[in-house]
Task: structure prediction
Amino acid sequence: MRRLINLTRRLGEDEALVDAQNPVVLGDISEPQPNLALLRPGPDFYAEHPRPEDILLLIEVADTSLAYDREVKVPTYARHGVPEVWIADLEGAAVEVYRRPAADGYARVERLDDPEAIVSPRLLPQLRLRVKDLVG
Result:
């Protein structure tokens, strides 16, 4: 987790706010805590928890939680319109990228397992990370 926070610090405060393990509000009864959230800059640094329209990217780090992240959290994020989610699969040494949310899941899913592959958030293309930096 510390590695991810450090890697995303390349972003300036005017580009994204980095938030670790804090709730995001999804509807009336759901407040999951993604491992890392990159949020639109906000004037109050989200005194209230961020909502889907505030999210640029969510990252889940999966060691023992891969099935739960894939089967429960990712579909919930999609239903609520979170634009992009990554799962850093530590055991599989891969990053799963979920884009284009819809009510029934993400329309675009990609699994990157080449350690040198570069992944960039669609809404933050200036942030370029290697798979091995996310899962190493």
